[in-house]
């Protein structure tokens, strides 16, 4: 159960947990600790009384409700109000720290609000409070944390602070903040992404604000992955803390008695004004991006839509990437610590849905569509087989036409008589599109061809078995070219990556990569800045297409 | 097969784990995962099909312990005569490998199955030899006992692999009552694991297993991993999560390690599937993926030992469901 402590401005508590020496810990010990923490760890909610937080929340809520968010200027004011509120409530620095920029925010807000007289009163109250905070900069969250450190009196106590409350743009937690300099401890870790948790367990993890917009994998890893024996949600009285519960697993009769009790949230989500402005600020950008691309029409009938996630890159560009596919991800290799003996077969990949900020992924920078296909096509051309792909897949338009005429259910039903076994009739659409080449075995493919010939005999002139044999053979040839193209790309890429590592080159935003001998557009390594939490259906032709975004990378500012 | 007697004969609690040079008793959670793998493997030899979905604080190392449990149980329920049946059923022309012990060493042979011949009243496996070169073209006749003792395998057994098999067989013998020494060299893989290969092997790299004061065996060796790409013999085939298709060993346990591996739930052929997930992976998408299987689940096919199941450790959640034969998952 979550426990709550209500502590006054100068209140202190004690840190649970033990110190851990700096010696190398085996993976078994780490995992063992995770199990122990998950079973016995506790989640505490520490509520701090801090009247200025109430004033600021209230003023920002009023500003948000009064402005016209269809107006660009007023929308900017609403966003600025959210940034101010979130910076003050979430930071653990002194309020006069120049990296928070409260003084400059005061100026900006003052100027912007002058044009909107209706919000003069809440803006006045907000600005007054901001000036007071800069003048008397003591931060209760910081004071509480430093008091904990002092009372623990164990310099090597491993403590983490969840700095990635809202991803890379978390107000109050700029990238310039350092755990060592700003929190006076070598054993303190600022956790911004899941990478910061790798091979780590802690005595305590401090969550310095609401987690509603923290990425799910990161948050669930911290809350339920046994990362610490003591999880502390540090919040002002005015902050509404909602701790998400894991999805309940079904209960079966075999293991019925073996239930596991998860930490429970004390307070539930509600729709208070605070939550409204937070939700708007965190979701409006993505909603805008999604809506901008919802009306993109497929380029052909075979250009089927698939679930895709929008990924923002640090250079201000973005791309839709297929949600259920993987991309080459090289951050561990290039940012140090990775295994340089990576072979062509082991190029690290990551699923698009698992991508997080600071990942470094490989995409083509020029051209569009599937790079592998293009390299394979180029190799087919060189081998004098320029029409092989078209010939091998000429049955796809035939299948597409028949599905449209009869419907996939009827085609699947007709196919049963010929041994066509499908778990779902929607597979037919997949086969008709360009996403997959063919059914995974020849028997299924032959049954499919027989079904098509039965429903539309005009599609095949020779015997259907002979036709299926020929197309299958051609598709196998195409797959061989794909495999060869994959090897060519991997070899060239690994060579280039090793070169980058040798040059000790850090990729901040984007690194263009020329792959000698590979002629199908320019490749690049792109640093991920943020990833949409929700997938949207996007035509396949739009995938992997990197395009610049209006407004640059500073998307939360 | 008596599930209780098989499980009782697998003394996984005798195991110690050596990590970063220190030997320690096996942790409770690992002990439970080994039990789960052994239980799933026993059931794979029984009627019905079933899936166990396990949610863990951390998925790291869990697939290794579940697979180890599966292999320990497999060695316990192994039946030599079925190996011989399987060898006889191999199509003519199949490439096979075996090692003939000579003194303290052994010689590696490769050949192709020719036929089954009857010599002096007993059936022999006739194999046309391809290597060593000096035996090229000659035919070897291996009677049942010799074939099983040598271990005729589909994958190659190098000197190094041979040493590893011997070490693993020694470990199994000290854990499993009556574990036959021939099982580890019997042809083909027993079980399958779908995982992120590189990180999985990296995690195992500094771990070893031991019983009592015996020499520790590297965890990777104890899993007797086969390599499809190098055609190396082993009892546990490792399939990369990013593979396009899965051809798992139908007689054993198939361990799906993580959300990326869960997509193979529909194509796995094994009668016992264990899906391992951590909390961050068990999301709406995963629920959407497994719900159709739960929707067609049945009560039959779950064979609970007479004394009940072993309760998971704190922090671990598990549910098991049966599936109808020839429908639903794979089949």
The chain pair forming the largest interface, with residue counts per chain, is: A-B, 49 and 53 residues
Unreliable residue runs of chain B: 327-331
CA-atom Rg of chain B in angstroms: 20 Å
SSE series of chain B: HEEHEHHEEEEHHEHEEHEEEEHE
Helical residue percent band of chain B: 25-40%
CATH class of one domain in chain A: Alpha Beta
CATH class of the largest domain in chain B: Alpha Beta
Shape estimate of chain A:
elongated
Indicate the mean pLDDT of chain A.
Answer: 81
Distance between the termini of chain B: 23 Å
How would you describe the overall organization of this protein?
The complex is a heterodimer of chains A (557) and B (331). Chain A has 557 residues and is of the alpha/beta class. Chain A has helices spanning 27-40, 51-66, 72-90, 102-113, 120-135, 140-152, 179-183, 216-224, 273-294, 331-334, 371-382, 388-392, 395-406, 408-416, 427-432, 442-455, 464-502; strands at residues 3-7, 42-48, 159-162, 165-168, 188-191, 202-207, 228-236, 305-313, 317-322, 326-328, 349-351, 360-364, 510-513, 523-531, 536-539, 547-548. Among the domains of chain A are: 3-50 and 139-236, Rossmann fold; 51-135; 388-482. Chain A contains 17 helices and 16 strands. In chain A, the strands form 3 sheets. In chain A, strands 8, 9, 12, 13, 14, 15 and 16 form a 7-stranded antiparallel beta sheet that branches. In chain A, strands 1-2-7-6-3-5 form a 6-stranded parallel beta sheet. A two-stranded antiparallel ribbon of chain A has the order 10-11. Chain B is α/β, with parallel strands linked by helices and 331 residues long. The longest helix of chain B has 17 residues, at 28-44. Mean pLDDT of chain B is 89; it is low at 327-331. At the A-B interface, helix 1 and helix 8 of A face strand 3, helix 7, helix 9 and strand 15 of B.
